[in-house]
Design goal:
The chain is of the alpha/beta class. The chain is built from 18 helices and 21 strands. Helix 14 packs antiparallel against helix 15. Bound molecules: 1-deoxynojirimycin and magnesium ion (MG). The site of 1-deoxynojirimycin (NOJ) has 9 residues, from loops.
Length: about 575
């Protein structure tokens, strides 16, 4: 009897405990849910496609929409959640499409509007969101607006651009990012100079003109109605500038954004854009650039501001642009400072590469045949385990590398050619300049996607617009698909891990042993979920002791080597080893 009584008591206790824990669980979830503002553009991974170089379907040597359609299953297999595509609009292609001459038309090189719609549907069927590149700090000089504007001061499009009337004398010096001759160009018909922050074929649009702003919102609505989910605002910080055009002090170009953009009116424009487009169409916008300070960045993306949703800063890519390399301490410091500044409000993209930088593995990892796979895996583990939305540039899932281009004759990029002219004009050491260009030029990252080891890497049946990297024989999708330990399959495991674990998206970030010279270690915590990320940034073995975090209860969630050696509280990491552990 007593036994039965005891047993009943035991059962009642268990029932009570279960009821209590059920009550507790929803509470914790409720707490977490009220703490996190869940959004699709925060979760998952964004994949960036440079359409000209992804896949050519018609043998003209240029990537196109039909080629992308052929590879939709590949894109889906990456486990990414959205795609940002570089510009494919009608354009004279002076800056590879960042000079748009009709924002509602497709450049025939990429296909037709029907092809675009088919591609978009292909993404939608796979639940992949689509982000459009909106290039509206400037248009092409071939755009109808500019063609009209430059015909007469009375023309209704004249005030779509910035002009300095010649009767006021020469305009105050303005630096141009692409043009060694500076940022003003003279047009005889109107006897005035127009402003261009980039090439002379890219005149800056006048955002102070409400008519121009309305045109831009109409363009954005046109694409939103077609079904695009987000916008990447190109060079948008320059949309607002001091249009009294005062003289600037010598050397001002070093703090370019401060002098050339980001005037307070920018926020009025963004708020207007939010009301007109972002909110009613339930889309999102990410700005290229995040100002010069945390305050600038917060003012752009904090949710209560109702302006933009995401921004990306350049502090990390900026430290990687010379052959001297970068310091891990500086790298950790930048990411930790930005994370800290955005822990409570605002959201950032996390990236180390894109179409404006050379290849990820060359700048931040180790591109030698011995280490390129492991170091690519390590970098992708980093990108996909940080707070913020990871942006992955096509080919970096494979560890595609820089292409060797030692002489200027081979370059087609307006920025490389402009920089070369500026360096020569200033009497700089040309050999040194070419060495740096070969290392950091963005053309390195525009070579055709490496699909297999057949002719032209399966990119085209014609002549590719740009020389392929000869290492496509070793580095290609087909080869990596069949190897479970490839960079590609590691990338897929990482996107899945991130998708399955909200802690990797929203969890708090805490750096551990910040001073460690070769290991980047950090912890992510969300409620009871804790993960420890250990990344060896060096080509040698490294050990790290973590008294609190490394215990008996570690479960390895991902590892780019077969083994992980932990003895007591010390982990020994092989060159570029990357592991994520679930910890208590
Ligand atoms: C930034 C873009 O990313 C870059 O590729 C382009 O050259 C400039 N903006 C000008 O649009
Ligand atoms: Mg083609």
């Amino acid at each position: 009897m007593i036994k039965r009584y005891l047993r009943l008591d035991f059962i009642v206790t268990i029932i009570l405990l279960t009821i209590l824990s059920c009550k507790n669980q929803p509470k914790e979830e409720v707490d977490l849910a009220s703490k996190i503002d869940r959004q699709w553009w925060k979760e998952g991974t964004l994949y960036q496609i440079y359409p000209q170089s992804f896949k050519d379907s018609d043998g003209d040597g240029f990537g196109d929409f039909k080629g992308i359609i052929e590879e939709l299953d590949y894109i889906e297999s990456l486990g990414i959640s959205s795609v940002w595509m570089n510009p494919f609009f009608k354009s004279p292609l002076v800056d590879n499409g960042y000079d748009v001459s009709d924002y509602r038309a497709i450049h025939p090189r990429y296909g037709t509007m029907e092809d675009f719609e088919e591609m978009l549907k292909g993404f939608q069927d796979r639940e992949i969101k689509f982000v459009l590149d909106v290039v509206v700090n400037h248009s092409s000089d071939q755009h109808e607006w500019f063609q009209e504007a430059k015909s007469s001061r009375e023309n209704k499009y004249y005030n779509y651009y910035h002009w300095w009337p010649a009767e006021k004398g020469k305009p105050p010096y303005r630096h141009s990012l692409f043009d060694p001759d500076g940022g003003w160009d003279y047009v005889e018909a109107v006897d005035a100079y127009y402003l261009h922050t980039f090439a002379e074929e890219q005149p800056d649009l006048n955002w102070e003109n409400p008519k121009l702003r309305q045109e831009v919102y109409d363009i954005m609505k046109y694409w939103a109605e077609m079904g695009v989910d987000g916008f990447r605002m190109d060079a948008f910080q320059f949309a607002s500038k001091d249009t009294t055009f005062p003289e600037f002090p010598d050397g001002h170009e070093k703090d370019f954004i401060k002098w050339y953009g980001l005037r307070p009116q920018l926020h009025d424009y963004l708020k207007e854009m939010y009301k007109e487009v972002i909110e009613p169409y339930n889309v999102f916008a990410v700005a290229e650039g995040a100002g010069s300070t945390f305050k600038d960045a917060h003012d752009l993306v904090d949710s209560d501001r109702k302006e933009l949703q995401v921004a990306y800063h350049f502090e990390t890519v900026d430290m990687s642009r010379t052959t001297d390399g970068y310091e891990l301490s500086q790298f950790k410091d930048v990411f930790s400072r930005w994370d800290d500044a955005f822990a409570e409000n605002g959201w950032l993209a996390i990236f180390l590469s894109n179409h404006d930088n050379s290849r990820l593995v060359n700048r931040f990892g180790n591109a030698s045949p011995e280490f390129r796979t492991v170091s690519t895996q390590m970098l992708n583990t980093f990108l996909l385990s940080m707070r913020g939305t990871p942006y992955t540039y096509y080919g970096d899932e494979l560890g595609m590398t820089n292409i060797d281009m030692p002489t200027i004759e081979e370059y087609v990029d307006i920025s490389a050619i402009g920089d070369y002219k500026m360096a020569s004009a200033k009497g700089k050491d040309v050999d040194e300049f070419m060495k740096q260009l070969n290392y950091a030029s963005r053309e390195n990252a525009r070579t055709p996607m490496q699909w297999d080891d057949s002719v032209n890497a399966g990119f085209t049946k014609g002549t590719p617009w740009k020389r392929l990297n000869p290492n496509y024989i070793q580095i290609n999708v087909a080869k990596q698909n069949s190897n479970p330990n490839s960079a590609l399959n590691h990338f897929r495991r990482m996107t899945k891990l991130r998708k399955d674990n909200l802690v990797l998206v929203y969890g708090d970030y805490e750096i551990l042993q910040k001073e460690h010279p070769s290991v980047y270690a950090f912890k992510r915590t969300l409620g009871n979920d804790k993960m420890l990320v250990l990344l060896n940034f060096s080509d040698e073995n490294s050990t790290i002791s973590l008294t609190e975090e490394l215990g008996n209860s570690n479960e390895t969630l991902i590892n780019n080597y077969e083994e992980l050696i932990i003895e007591g509280n010390e982990a020994s990491l092989l060159p570029y080893q990357a592991v994520i552990l679930k910890i208590e």
